[in-house]
Amino acid sequence: MADWTSNLPAAAQVYLEGRRLDEVECIISDLPGIARGKAVPASKFARQDYFHLPDSIFFQTITGDWGEAAGEDGFIEKDMILKPDMSTATAAPWTGDWTLQVIHDAYDRADVPVPFSPRNVLKRVCQLYRDKGWKPVVAPEMEFFLIARNLDPAKDIEPMVGRSGRPAAARQAYSMTAVDEFGPVIDDIYDFAEAQGFEIDGITQEGGAGQLEINLRHGDPVKLADEVFYFKRLIREAALRHDCFATFMAKPIADEPGSAMHIHHSVLDLETGANIFSGEDAEETEAFQHFISGLQRHMPAAMAVIAPYVNSYRRYVKDQAAPINLQWGRDNRTTGIRIPLSRPEARRVENRLAGMDCNPYLGIAASLACGYLGLIEQQDPAPEFKGDAYDGEGDIPRVLGSALDLFEGATELHDVLGKEFSRVYSIVKRAEYDEFLQVISPWEREHLLLNV
């Protein structure tokens, strides 16, 4: 192996042991969370310290069009300098040759982090915590569907056919038999994850037909966002090997539950390592209450980030395993903010609103930003909700347009996430929303065409 590979993470070194590295994929996440970048021969990567991509990759909508997000100089597509973070080097085990992936960070020509790069946004929020003497810790949960190959967008999505030859059944949450139905796909997910050095905390069957959940161990927010970013790709690749698709749409199948990215948060004191949500007497602290308050006060404005598409809002339906409000409760899965059962040192707050369709860097950044504002503002949350929160009123936006209205007016949130990011994000999401409004749906043709 070349000299530079001796400093790779352990899993990458094991993957390459006795083999010749052929190619390196130099990648970065755009706003939707799609991997952009270049694949270069390993010999060329060894000679380069950086490479260039135009900053316009962050102005692209999910459909490939462009939001008019130009800066003061107009839309001139400035080149960014992308520098590798070698701690992220990991295998691409589904490729036909020996390939590594490396996540890069984006800088401008003055060596300043590009403010609308999603990974930089999350790093910015984490730094605000560190400036206060805190260390944020997160644990994401990833829900997704394995579905039959869908080549026609006009055709309804159907669950994949399992090894029994029957389509996956719904409402079989936590069934081991249901998990066994997808055994070959899950085996590849485990194999790919092991080759990439990722530790899966567990895989379970969720309530939807062909819906699975993967839990990751808690840790540093940027590292966990990197893993979710990588996981989305490896899960898709594992599914393709078995003639099915993996989808991370928030609501891919009508009358089935949607897919969330639940985010568990705790905050440690940088000096002592103690969880600031628990006091010396093991009781809940004021900081714990303030963090919850921040989620309640600021999450409506952050919905456009954690629920970034028109489809995202189809998830928030009563009695469909997704919250409809920002009530909080202990061990209550009907609330938007849940306090799981835990030991005092592991006391944490779970945000159940984020959809699996969000960019993991931005979803985690937005959730942490709301909690951070709560810690700074030091206000009390609403009283704990006891009972079925679906009996209460909804207090979150129901459509993307309303969510964008709230986001655009949320100056406190912009200050945490970054004003330039917030400006660009809003413009791109408005462009997507306007494009969606030009599409006439089958429902409109069926019910309005001859009746109104």
Automatic annotation (TrEMBL):
Highest taxon, organism lineage: Bacteria
Domain GS catalytic: 118-452
SMART domains named among the record's database cross-references: Gln-synt_C
Keywords for the protein's UniProt record, in alphabetical order: Ligase, Magnesium
CC cofactor: Mg(2+)
A Pfam family recorded for this sequence: Gln-synt_C
Record has DNA damage as a keyword: no
Family: Belongs to the glutamine synthetase family.
Protein name per its UniProtKB record: Glutamine synthetase family protein
Origin species: Roseobacter sinensis
